[in-house]
Specification:
521 residues; alpha/beta; ten-stranded mixed sheet; three-stranded antiparallel sheet; 17 strands; 14% strand; globular
């Protein structure tokens, strides 16, 4: 035994010929599946066409067709907490990620970064030999740590990822993003005039990483965490996509919502006897809007649809790359659309400038009308009206931020694993939660969750594997109890029942606050 390397088991004599070498036992994940987790931002339950939308998402649908759609999957109702739960398998309060990630309140439930006692899926997989990549939105580091000065301990490379390309905060301009590559801030490689769009760039980086790995080490599996900035505001898309959607939503959100609801029943996404939830307070009937209000409301939704259309096309590029490399059969895809319900943060009227509503400064509807040709372009940071969020959370009540109701927490999810799933294209109604993603991936890879990561004793994992659902559509759900809480809106699910408490704060009024024991319903 060497005092410098206690694990050395060979013998060291005077000469090489007399000595016996030994090599440390290396992690061996060979044979495990590649894993790609795709996370959309701010998509409601009904936004993918395979869950009822009239906005075609053929590439998302193709993944669902080769796998399973889950109609009982849930998130936390807000972006950073959902992502923290996904990556750690723990509930968001316990890992320090309640509310907006950039805030450190000084209390354990909201530190602004993931607790080191909650090792990420990337840390666990990398220790077992996986290559690990992260592309897109991070939003899991306090704002004061996101400058070039760091510190970097809450950045992706320090949380288990070999490579990172994306942005650290909650949102960014899709044409002029605040980009970070690994541990360094960089400028975008091209300008919008040269055809640049962030979503395309994320796919370029992801496919390059995968091709580089497979060309040299085809036996080594990888984990790609692909977290789009889409569909978070600003809703930016290339001009050709914006033109494609002109006039497609002129009937308004009430008609659109009713049609989506009918499609969901026809597709079996919801049971035949389901009742469409009541109108949310603040959502005006379409017929009560003035003609001018209808004009710019339609244009805002057109920009959103164009962005979703464009993002789906980029997923198609990723799927083509995986297929071309001959690795599709043993690649586990988990795509979550999205990390909370549809966003109502664009206010009642919609917004030309996201910073305006973030700072509580209303925009004049007439001014919006005069500038609606900017929607979807690099000239503004647009966000659609509350009414469109309400429509695409069908059939549920409420939306993003409201954890008391399924409009905020139930999201479309599908799982595809061609070499493993036989019941392709089918539905699963089991109740599950975003904390169940990490245990599912570890179970698929045949890896046990370690009790220590980076020398630290680990918090208990709250999630359970969903793999049992692949072959047992009638099996009882293994997740029988789950709590939800965000901004005081809270709920408790248990064995098919849910107790909900809506606390009074609407998501489009950023600065409203209520006593904890205030209005409830």
């Amino acid at each position: 035994m060497s005092q410098y390397e206690p694990s050395f088991t060979g013998k060291i004599k005077n000469t090489y010929q007399e000595s016996t070498p030994s090599w440390p036992e290396l992690p061996n994940a060979l044979g495990g599946p590649n894993v790609i987790t795709i996370v959309f931002d701010d998509l409601g339950f009904a936004h993918p066409s395979c869950f009822g939308s009239e906005i075609p998402t053929p590439n998302i649908d193709s993944l669902a067709a080769t796998g399973l759609r889950y109609t009982g999957f849930h998130t936390t109702a807000l972006c950073s907490p959902s992502r923290a739960s996904l990556l750690t398998g723990r509930n968001h309060h316990s890992v320090g990620m309640r509310g907006v990630s950039n805030w450190n309140t000084g209390f354990p439930n909201m530190r602004g970064g993931i607790s080191p006692r909650a090792g990420t899926i990337a840390e666990v997989l990398r220790a077992q030999g996986y290559a690990t990549f992260c592309a897109g939105k991070w939003h899991l580091a306090p704002m004061e740590e996101c400058s070039a000065a760091g510190p970097h301990h809450n950045w992706p490379l320090q949380k288990g990822f070999d490579r990172f390309y994306g942005f650290l905060n909650g949102e960014t301009d899709q044409f002029y993003p605040e980009l970070t590559q690994d541990n360094q801030h960089i400028l975008p490689p091209r300008t919008p005039e040269e055809g640049y769009h962030l979503t395309e760039d994320l796919i370029d980086q992801s496919t390059t990483w995968i091709r580089d790995l497979v060309s040299v080490r085809p036996d080594r599996p990888f984990y790609l965490y692909l977290a789009f900035g889409a569909q978070h505001a600003p809703h930016h898309a290339p001009d050709s996509y914006l033109a494609k959607w002109r006039g497609k939503f002129d009937e308004g959100w009430d008609v659109h919502r009713d049609r989506v609801f009918a499609r969901q029943k026809e597709m079996g996404i919801i049971p035949e006897g389901t009742t469409l939830a009541m109108r949310n307070p603040g959502v005006r009937p379409w017929v009560e809007l003035t003609k001018n209000e209808q004009l710019f409301a339609c244009r805002l939704q057109e920009a959103f649809a164009a962005m979703l259309d464009h993002t789906d096309a980029q997923i198609g590029r990723l799927l083509d790359a995986v297929e071309d490399l001959g690795i599709a059969e043993n690649t586990l895809f988990i795509y979550i659309t999205g990390d909370n319900g549809a966003s109502a943060e664009g206010t009642i009227h919609g917004a030309w400038s996201a910073p305006s509503f973030q700072n509580g400064i209303p925009e004049d509807p007439e001014w919006l009308l005069d500038h609606m040709d900017d929607f979807g372009t690099a000239r503004c940071e647009n966000h659609y009206n509350v009414g469109w969020a309400w429509a695409l959370d069908s059939p549920f009540q409420w939306m993003k931020q409201v954890a008391s109701h399924f409009g905020g927490t139930r999201n479309a999810m599908a799982l595809s694993w061609p070499s493993r799933i036989e019941d392709t294209g089918a539905l699963r109604t089991h109740f599950h939660h975003v904390v169940d993603v990490m245990p599912t991936i570890l179970a698929a890879a045949g890896i046990e969750m370690p009790t220590r990561v980076n020398g630290l004793e680990q918090l208990p994992v709250d999630g359970v594997s969903m793999l049992y659902t692949l072959d047992a559509p009638q099996a009882k759900s293994l997740r029988t109890t789950q709590y939800f809480e965000m901004f005081g809106n809270r709920a408790l699910y248990h064995d098919g029942w849910i107790a909900s408490c809506y606390h009074g704060r609407v998501p489009w009024n950023r600065f409203d606050s209520f006593p904890f024991n205030g209005p409830e319903e």
